[in-house]
Amino acid sequence: xxxxxxxxxxxxxxxxxxxxxxxxxxxxxxxxxxxxxxxxxxxxxxxxxxxxxxxxxxxxxxxxxxxxxxxxxxxxxxxxxxxxxxxxxxxxxxxxxxxxxxxxxxxxxxxxxxxxxxxxxxxxxxxxxxxxxxxxxxxxxxxxxxxxxxxxxxxxxxxxxxxxxxxxxxxxxxxxxxxxxxxxxxxxxxxxxxxxxxxxxxxxxxxxxxxxxxxxxxxxxxxxxxxxxxxxxxxxxxxxxxxxxxxxxxxxxxxxxxxxxxxxxxxxxxxxxxxxxxxxxxxxxxxxxxxxxxx
Length: 295
Ligand code: NAP
Fold this sequence. Notes:
Layout: E1 8-9, H1 12-34, E2 39-45, H2 52-65, E3 68-74, H3 80-92, E4 98-101, H4 111-117, H5 129-137, H6 145-156, E5 165-169, H7 176-185, E6 189-193, H8 200-205, E7 209-212, E8 230-233, E9 237-240, E10 248-251, H9 256-259, E11 265-266, H10 273-292
The protein binds NADP nicotinamide-adenine-dinucleotide phosphate.
């Protein structure tokens, strides 16, 4: 594998920009019709949470398209009851169409209690069991943003999914499993792999489409891919790099240099699935606003 990359780079940003422009237009129409913009509340428990940067990006993304987004901040020591009570208030607030809760939550707060408290009609990240169930059954509901982004980037890049063999590496409730269900919905034949999968390379090598969401830098190498495969790298991992400005750089779960010599198309990290993820949340917020504003 000494030749330069041959794979087409599936860039998320141009697609995200196109979708965001359409969302901005939808926000104008909604605001004109309803006299208020769509609203999003991001519940945050303590400012030093690892996901704060991501949540700030969501707020900025909303501002750019005209969605009224704000943090609802609880102290780091807040109890589960306080978090649940805050979510219930937001459920009842007619100016709030979508609710996101910072993940991971402090260990004293049960994830299930918080997820159950979110009104499914405001659950724009598709984490409530009702939305998860709707996806499982193939019905419309709110889709988890990252899983949606990983399949949408394929669709919008004109990659054929129907009838093709897909492997998803990772089975988390928020990324791997919903991505697998979405691929099934798109008529792919899907295998889901995890840590106990025997001979991961044999599974990925048999696949036309490989979606990797494992959180393990460089897990999928060039020789684990079938020539011409399409690769979606969902992973975002920080690896130390003293030459980088912040002392680290972001890499995916796929060895990009190797994979790009074997695959026909591949999403880069950063710049692939990442820019699409927040965009999907913006789409869902406007969808929730329309649902909530129904007569
Ligand atoms: P997670 O909850 O830790 O799940 C990881 C999954 O990968 C698990 O199912 C695990 O298997 C599997 N896995 C881990 N190592 C493996 C290995 N060596 N071989 C096979 N399977 C393996 O992580 P997540 O929340 O789904 O996130 C996955 C990745 O996506 C992370 O890098 C995360 O940073 C990234 N992410 C990106 C975005 C975005 O916007 N692009 C958004 C969210 C997450 P078991 O179930 O057997 O443990």
